[in-house]
Amino acid sequence: MSKHVIHATMLARCPFSVATEMLGRSLREKKDMTVSVTRAIREHVRLGWAVVDDLTDESRRHDAIAIYWTPDHPTFPSFAGTITVRPHYRESYIRITGTYDPPLGRAGRLFDRFAGRHIARATLLRLIRELVRDIESRYLVYLQEIGAAGAHRHSGGKRDEVLRTH
C-alpha cells in the first residue's frame, strides 16, 4: 500500500496558552464522528487520539495530538496523523498532518490519482474548520466563565474583586 501525506493549517482566534486544552476538550467528547467533503459525501468513523510530544519544533517542547480514524465502510480510507498548535501573536495556528492509504487496491489508487487526493484534502480542510470553530467557541465560553475582566486579570480562583476596575 502506498501512503499519501496530506495536511491543512488554519488560524484560530485563541491564544496558544489554551488552544491545545480547548482542542483536547473538543476531542474528548468525540468517540466517533462524521468526516466529510460536503454534506452529501461523508463517512462515519471511529476516532482515536492521544496527547504526545511534538517533535516538529526543535526550539521548544510542545504537546501534539496524535489522531487516527477508522471508517465504517471499506470505500473510505483510514487516516493517521498529528495535530500541532503554534503561537501566532494572540492567536494559534492549528495544523493537521497525516497519511492515508487509498482503499480498494489498484482501482482505489487510480481513483486517488484523479479525484481521491482532492477529496481527502477537502475532507481534512472541512475537519480543521470544524475543530477551529469549536476551539474558538470553547475559548469564548472560557472567557465568560472567568469574567469580563479577561484572562490577564484572573487569579486562578473566583474572580478577584481587588483587581476589578472601579
Condensed summary:
With 166 residues, the protein is an alpha+beta fold.
Give the averaged pLDDT, no decimals.
Answer: 82
Order of helices and strands: EHEEEEEH
Strand order of the largest sheet: 1-6-5-4-3-2
**Alpha carbon gyration radius:** 19 Å
Describe this structure in words.
The protein has helices at about 15-30, 105-145, and strands spanning about 5-10, 30-35, 40-55, 60-70, 80-90, 90-100. It is of the alpha+beta class. Strands 1-6-5-4-3-2 form a six-stranded antiparallel beta sheet, with helices on one face. The longest helix has about 40 residues, at about 105-145. It is globular, with a radius of gyration of 19 Å. The N and C termini lie far apart (about 65 Å).
Structural descriptors:
disordered C terminus
What's the helix and strand layout?
Elements: E1 4-12, H1 16-28, E2 32-36, E3 42-54, E4 62-71, E5 79-88, E6 91-100, H2 105-146
Antiparallel strand pairs: 1-6, 2-3, 3-4, 4-5, 5-6
